[in-house]
Amino acid sequence: MKTHSLLLTALAFTCVSCGTDAPVVRDSPVSSEPAATPPEPVIRRLTESQYESSVHDLFGEDSVLPLRIEPDIEQDGLLSIGSAHNSLSPLGVEQYEEASFSLAEQALAPGPIRDAIMPCQPAAIQDADCARNALSTLGRQAWRRPLTNAELDTIVALSGTAADIRGDFYLGLELGLGTLLQSPYFVYRVELGEAAPEGGRRYTNNEMATKLSYFLWNTAPDEALLTAAENGELTESVALNTQVERMLDDPKARQGFRNLISEMLALYELDELSKDPNVFPAMRTGIGPSAREETLLTVEALVFDRQDDFRSWMTTRDTFVDQNLAMIYAVAAPNLEGFGPTHLPDDGLRSGLLGQVSILATAAHPVSSSATLRGLFVRNKLLCQDIPPPPADVDTSIPEPEPGALTLRDRVASHLENDFCATCHSAMDPIGLALENFDGIGIYRETENGVVIDAHGEIDGESYDNAEGLGRVLALNPGYTACMTDTVFGYAEGHRPTLGELGLSEWLLERFEQEGYSMKSLLREVATSQAFRTPSEVVQ
User: Fold this and answer.
1) Does residue 70 contact residue 13 with C-beta atoms inside 8 Å?
2) What is the secondary structure of 112-155 as a DSSP string?
3) Scanning 29, 72, 381, 458, which has the fewest C-beta atoms within 10 Å of its C-beta?
């Protein structure tokens, strides 16, 4: 037996587009957190990864997730911002309904999942007390807050009616559990705030538990966080700080940060990495996922194990490789299976994020490298600068190699000589040309078509000779750290800093610098900031 979602088809969520074209670089120090004026609140749908992790928290890792739910969309560079602007289609409603009852059926079938989640044993086909106990416990976890008596009464009654019809307590409870899982209170993050005792507005304790958990862990609140919310602690600064410290020390913080970086760099696209094997014989199944894992392991170690200056992400020679990547990097694989730590040669040009296959292969074409795509990656993802796409009627193809124009530098010169094209290409191509010592899959090369590659260039007035030099220049570029600050804020809040939040953006950047560019410190500053705790005065 199925029912349509309680509220999904009745709710209409209005989304506000917001953000700035470039990160803010402060002109003068800011000593304390400035007041900010956030945009109108929006209700964010769980991203696919948040939905998956929340289901696993409820029922365990063995739960079989649905094959299809409403897909994520990226906005302003992040799926977590797109989730605040993504309405649900009629097909999406049906997909969530099917997923909810599939999960409920799995959870309540005889076996270890049911044994783990059921707090009681039914005494009969109709056992309202046991149903109420089970649904209140599961509902509190799923909805990230306790259910009201009215909500619980309705769902228990539905379960009882279904149990009578189907002749089995657990088959009846499937209806109640499926109803919980297709509710907007599970699928969406309802964070609108309440009136604060001292005036103005604040997020409620349960809303704070949800915000903190999906920001720092990319999953639902755990028991300790829910209990702190129910005790009224998450609207108090001291208790909030204690919870944030606990959460940053928990292994789930690594999971959450990996998701932030995956969104920022669009690493999920590596599952579909495609290269022409005739051009790139080293291409094989599994290189895309391997490349993603290398990048995530590298940045995870930098932030949580070494707790280094985050700018070193652009220059480090410490990475992790498996057999796939060791072949491409021409280094010995540390393990026969899986990943192991590797220090890349100190005299080589491969270093930092820009030397990794995850970037070199995705910011390239299936049959060649691409100075434009690689330069666009740096401008867009690492400096938060928007460069518009070319007009639909403009030919963007690169001439084929010919005598006198055998290297990509020679062949893209036409972009820089044409006034119409040069406006954008002068911001991208010179950066991407610094990475030409790596082909379209990331293998090092010194020549192209028999001609020595010239990888020199400059970015924002700073010169470099090659890819390694570009990484060093980027590490010290104030736009890079400003971009990281605004990206973390956007991931947390569901929007890039707006005009009313520019002072806050400057303050967060200053704190990032004062803390030695520690990413854990930046995560802490955002999570404990007054802005993170204060919604707009305007409620839709």
Assistant:
1) no
2) HHHHHH-SS--SSS--HHHHHHHHHHHHHHHHTSPPPHHHHHHH
3) 29
Length of the chain, please? 540
- Nearest CA to 349 out of 425, 445, 462 is that of 445
Say if CB 361 and CB 342 are below 8 A apart. Answer: no
CB 291: neighbour CB atoms within 10 A? 27
Q: Where are the domains of the chain?
A: 44-189
Cβ atoms 522, 512 nearer than 8 A: yes
Q: How many angstroms separate the CA atoms of 522 and 77, rounded?
A: 19
Q: How much is the pTM? A: 0.91
Label the pairing between strands 44-45 and 451-452.
Answer: unpaired
Q: What is the pLDDT along the chain (540 residues), one digit of tens a residue?
A: 333 333 333 333 222 233 334 444 444 445 799 999 999 888 999 999 999 999 999 999 989 988 788 999 999 999 999 999 888 899 999 999 999 999 999 999 999 999 999 999 999 999 999 999 999 999 999 999 999 999 999 999 999 999 999 999 999 999 999 999 999 999 999 999 999 998 999 999 999 999 999 999 999 999 999 999 999 999 999 999 999 999 999 999 999 999 999 999 999 999 999 999 999 999 988 999 999 999 999 999 999 999 999 999 999 999 999 999 999 999 999 999 999 999 999 999 999 999 999 999 999 999 999 999 999 999 999 999 998 877 665 656 666 776 767 678 877 776 666 665 666 777 888 999 999 999 999 999 999 999 999 999 999 999 999 999 999 999 999 999 999 999 999 999 999 999 999 999 999 999 999 999 999 999 999 999 999 999 988 654
- Residue with structure tokens 């391997």? 290
Contact 131, 176 (CB under 8 A): yes
Name the phi and psi angles at 462, rounded to 5: -105, 125
d(CA 126, CA 377): 60
For residue 452, give the 3-state DSSP assignment.
strand
Nearest to 322 by CA among 308, 307, 302, 337: 337
* Amino acid letter for position 450: G
Enumerate residues 6+ apart whose C-beta is below 8 A from 71: 48
Q: What DSSP character marks residue 52? A: H
Q: Which two tokens stand for residue 531?
A: 């802005």
Neighbour count for residue 210 (Cβ, 10 Å): 24
